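Bug report (template v2)

What were you trying to do?
Predict the complex of my protein with iron/sulfur cluster.

What happened?
Run completed; filing so the output is reviewed.

Input:
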Amino acid sequence: MTFVAELNSLAVPSLVRRSLAAGSAAVNESLAKSRLTLMDFAHLISPAAAESLEMMSRRSHQLTQQRFGKVIRLFAPLYLSNECINNCQYCGFSRDNPILRVTLAVDEVLREARALGNQGFRNILLVAGEHPKFVSGNYLRDCIAALRPEWPGISLEVGPMETTEYRPLVEAGAEGLVVYQETYDRGIYADMHTAGPKRDFDWRLETAERAYTAGFRRLGLGALYGLADWRYEALCVAAHADYLLRNCWKASVTISLPRLRPCAGEFQPLTQITDRDLTQLVCAFRLMFPDVGLVLSTREPAKLRDGLIPLGITLMSAGSHTEPGGYTGAGREKIHHTERGRIVELGASEWAAAGPDIHATQQFEIADERSPKEVAELIRKLGYEPVWKDWDAALMV
Ligand code: SF4
């Protein structure tokens, strides 16, 4: 059974209702178990469980230390391109947004990567908008092959592909694939994705399975919190992770917890998830999945990130730029302006206003602006070891 079929047969709204109605007895019963079901997870994200957040945090902290040690792995996103053929209402790179775009050449990608390498990173996430003309399979393969000799850990966050298209990327040296469903609510998904291949909900939902078949051995998933109700999304993410752990058992699974950030287009979140909700969610994921990596990006402010380190987070980005060329200015001379998917020449005064430090438009604003060195120092101060290389890669078969 595919995950699409499994999700279709799951009564998520009823699980959300049971979560909202759960009392402290149900929460305590779930907390007492060593193996949790989806219903237990629903109890752990309930308003009633929020009253037991201190206890959940303690458990989550102990479990994370037991399974992962006192280690936080660091990675950096490297944006290859912000060209995109999709319109996703919440994203700065949406096709119709009038923004500055560029796709880096392979040598420019190397320049960006070396700047990250000089800061200590050995684990890189290549990110790109979905645009088969600019971000083709061959282009991605060439980028990976060029990076591979210097980068022990390469993951991708790019438009979903067929299994046969993924295989050459695995052969070239990519080992991880990250794909967020954004929202698991079909109605909201349809409203948010108004043009482009991303409109196909099921195709996106099956991406992790195709990636696994192609040989990826790290699968990253998540929802973008701020679209549908956070408990609904969290239950679907938990169901998805559970499915992958059962069916793609050779892969390690990570769950990210991105919340919407300001971006071009100025989309406003449809729903709220507070810092306290997010903390509860981190603990609930940890208690449900003791061995799954939990990822927190620079979307979140420094203070919250620091506070979540001891509670269950195992992977963090640091010093991130969310535009291609953001680390070195690579590709600056090719930047162009597009409106509704077409290149539109800007006048001399508009280029002059952009100034000599012109850069492509970022996907979203980051909240934690500390340098990787500062983040690493903070991690040490909290008694953890910042790890730049993903050692699992050496242990993989
Ligand atoms: S979320 Fe991804 S697919 Fe959608 S517009 Fe942004 S880059 Fe393109």
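What did the reviewer find?
Residues 84, 86, 88, 91, 93-94, 129-130, 198 surround iron/sulfur cluster (CB under 6 Å). The chain has 18 helices and 14 strands.
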